[in-house]
């Protein structure tokens, strides 16, 4: 997709408007972008937008997203849940492709080759939507960790299976389990080895760069190079990018100064936001309702096939896990989330568009892939939060909610008290009315302060967490003041850099403590002071 500048500006304006609308309508951002792109496409509001180029998805978007997922992933959480994550990404993916392909074969009367090929396309989950949802949803930590870990690694195995199946289908051969399985194993292990080597090399360079901008450039090069290099030697570029991100992430947390960590993570947060926006809009823009009309029954049957295939891929491996490794077993309610959260995305679209022209039943495969992806992203994207609440997994901390309510009363009462003084000073309020209202708000302020002290005293953990959150706001205020002083020439550049680096170190320590880690010695000493 090569965009002219006016079209690019138009898409950015559309993305901004959709982001604002999604926030006000309480609609997931990704769903709003897909629907917005569909409206733009149907209404011809931005003529001249080229179709999505699969090479852009595979060579730029996918490496960046997977690397960012690896660099920000909780390695300890992945290590602790390695068995269920590995089981879902290997056996689960094979079962998903096989069961979905079999269902498509019997429901749509597709030949086995195209059916399995479409099954591999629809077995891919949208990593972006999953990570976005579960980084913000207050669900149990282990559940979120397993889903995020699986979403990072299943793309790799699905892409390997897709490549192997496409090769035999286009070549006119019948796919065999042995050939596909052997290719998947070799590509996965080899891709992980390439990613580890690139990640270690990137970490070696980052430790010696000692410049945040150069370090950002290194991480970008590692993200793209790890994927491309693995693909060039016919290995899994997706797994390579994830492993490279994990390796670089370890280096950042252990050996890179806090200021560089903050700069690198800020860059990747913005980069992935931009890529996500592009991909979600592209799904809507490239969906042609007129092309789907002749395949609507097939799309409906394919949605059922995908659900059945995912159910086999989830419940069977977890049953085996319960039988042979009871300590690692997953509650049944959690298993349902893996089914509901199986959202399709732009990667499925890219795989469908990337099918060679001589692929049997290519037009039907592409149309069904588009239809299922649209239904999945909109339907499941809207239903995911409700499903989590219905399953009782959307954890609401009663103490935190009570504290937030009292804090809201305190903020509102103090604001009213300030406005009351201003009205009285301007002579707009009689003395008697002023005294009466002033005493009323003072009582409200005193009551809210008393309740906040009581909650903090009775729930020490919540009180400590609240204190840490306030410290984080104060550090932000310090940073803003220091940056202003540096811009105005009130303090030298070297002094500002040193003080900002110290603030970054304190901020990282607070983030670790808030997420269950431990603060560094310097931060503890500062807190005690």
UniProtKB/TrEMBL annotation:
Membrane-topology descriptor: Multi-pass membrane protein
Residues forming coiled coils: 431-458
Main localization of the protein described in the UniProt heading: membrane
Signal peptide range in chain numbering: none
Annotated localization: Cell membrane
Transmembrane spans: 6-22, 29-46, 52-73, 85-108, 114-134, 155-174, 180-206, 213-229, 235-252, 264-285, 297-324, 336-355, 367-388
BP-aspect Gene Ontology terms: regulation of intracellular pH; sodium ion import across plasma membrane
Domain Cation/H+ exchanger transmembrane: 12-390
InterPro entries found in the cross-reference section: Cation/H_exchanger_CPA1, Cation/H_exchanger_TM, Na+/solute_symporter_sf
One MF annotation (Gene Ontology) recorded for this entry: sodium:proton antiporter activity
Keywords linked to the UniProt accession: Antiport, Cell membrane, Coiled coil, Ion transport, Membrane, Sodium, Sodium transport, Transmembrane, Transmembrane helix, Transport
Gene Ontology CC: one annotated term: plasma membrane
Similarity-based family: Belongs to the monovalent cation:proton antiporter 1 (CPA1) transporter (TC 2.A.36) family.
Record-linked PANTHER family: NA(+)_H(+) ANTIPORTER NHAS2, SODIUM/HYDROGEN EXCHANGER
Protein name: Sodium:proton antiporter
Organism from which the protein derives: Corallococcus terminator
Lineage: Bacteria, Pseudomonadati, Myxococcota, Myxococcia, Myxococcales
